[in-house]
Amino acid sequence: MERTFVAVKPDGVQRGLCGEIIKRFEHRGFKLVAAKFLQASEEHMKKHYLDLKDMPFYAGLCKYMSSGPVFAMVWEGQDIVKLTRMMLGETNPAESKPGSIRGDLCINIGRNIIHGSDTLQNAKTEIDLWFKAEEFVNYEQVFKPFLYE
Predict the structure, then answer these.
(1) Residues within the annotated binding site for ATP?
(2) What fold does the segment set 2-146 form as a domain?
(3) Is tRNA-binding among the key words of this record (predicted)?
(4) In this predicted model, what pLDDT tens digit does every residue of 33-55 receive, in sequence order?
């Protein structure tokens, strides 16, 4: 099974959307293996978004992401990075399809409520940045045989 990193951004937290987002992942059949609610420092966000450091919006993004609490999670499942990106929708909510998280729940690209890893390698890097090994919970989902062949 693959793992991916997902974070509800400060705008999603402030709007009370953590539960809705968790529900969508759980209904899909994915397994939550780690989660924490925190306010990240700007330095932490600079590390998280290091791959965007040359973009004109980098400084503002890091400042915004450290401006309020985020809900950081690690989810596990088959093809989870790809499927999570589909669930999130496009970075720009105006280009997101109805049924996606961004397509249903937000309007503005600068307040697109959620982050999800875009590749397996970035998922590993982000998970390692946000979580320690002892913060993961290992358990079996009782409905797993009804999800996977």
Answers:
(1) 9, 57, 85, 91, 102, 112
(2) Alpha-Beta Plaits (3.30.70)
(3) no
(4) 999 999 999 999 999 999 999 99
The owner of tokens 């982000």 is: 126
Instruction: Report d(CA 63, CA 76) in Å as an integer.
Output: 29
In one-letter notation, the amino acid at residue 31 is: K
CA distance 127 to 141: 21
The residues spanned by each domain of the chain are: 2-146
Q: Catalytic residues, which ones?
A: 115
Cα separation, 137 vs 5, in Å, equals: 15
